[in-house]
Amino acid sequence: MTRPPTAAQRRVIDTADPVTGRVRGTPAQLAALVKRGLAFRHPRPPHDHFLTPAGHRAREADPAPPTPAEGSDGAVFSARVGGEGDAPASGPARLREVHSAWQGLLELRRMTNPDGATDRPCGWERAHLVRSAALALEAAGHRPAGPEGTGYRVRATAQPEAVAVHDEDTAALGACAAALEQAGWQTGEHTEPRTRVRYLLASPRRV
User: Fold this and answer.
1) What is the per-residue pLDDT for 62?
2) Does any domain span residue 76?
3) Residues spanned by the domain of 122
4) Is 193 within a domain?
5) Region annotation Disordered: residue ranges (predicted)?
6) Contacts with 143 (C-beta within 8 Å, 6 or more apart), sequence order
7) Would you say 149 and 168 are in contact if contact means Cβ atoms under 8 Å apart?
């Protein structure tokens, strides 16, 4: 059985960039994470270190308090999954945060997909399905549901690599499907057997 990270390694993992997974620490700490398969050293300058899928899983196994995204104004970036109970943040500042997070995710795809592809989800997204789908939707200009009830909602499902996307507006639901497919997801429209409500089932595309 793999030993859990040490306290020092845990601190490095917990303070990794929430989107790209970039980690910072002493050379010895970073080398230890690489040796254990929890991080990798990027081959191109400046040779930064990033969490591997195993490193992301290690962080999620015992979630730490969220850390500010780099380049933000100190606020913690959180993908809006819809229906959180308060009005979604909006305005220029939120647009900048979402754009920055999406660009960071594309860069993570480029660095971690074996062929460097940015047109399909990477391992981090498969480990954070709800947040990843929500980010793809918000980055495409869709609005998450707030107290008024209109907008998208992304929810986990019993299927291992699929999320459900709901929107009371049928046309908006179709637009959500198009946005997710553009972001590298595959979607299918389904109907709840009892309520007859239409929803999307979306999963990350592999090829």
Assistant:
1) 46
2) no
3) 92-204
4) yes
5) 1-21, 40-74
6) 88, 150, 151, 152
7) yes
